[in-house]
Amino acid sequence: MKKTTSILPFFIGLFFVILYAFFPTKMHFIDGLTYSWNLENLQIKYMLHPHHPLWLPLMHIIYNAVRTIFLNLRAMAFLSFLNALLGGILVFLFIRILQLFIRKSTIPILAGLFLGSSWGMMTYCPDANIYILVLV
Asked: Among residues of the chain, what percentage have pLDDT more than 90?
């Protein structure tokens, strides 16, 4: 029973990473479009955004490192996949934290499935915004 309790949150998180990554949004928020354009077109010294001062320079470094492997990768696809990955990690962490407080294994699992399939997660995880990063 204990082994299933520790493995199942990982697979649920992985399921939501795959779900969010394979169904990206086609209607991006303006923030995601702006962040993507900034990553592709601005020099790093102009990326200090007043609301997220370290996010764009850090993403610029990671994005350029990933582009050494995937040469034609666009910033929108990179940020969307990053949010999908972070969304799955958030669901995993949510279940694991609930399992620390609630010993009954079905309640944290059901709560994690509910969180992962909620409107907010299904809206923001496939998008290229910063909202999921802030939650994690």
From this structure: 36
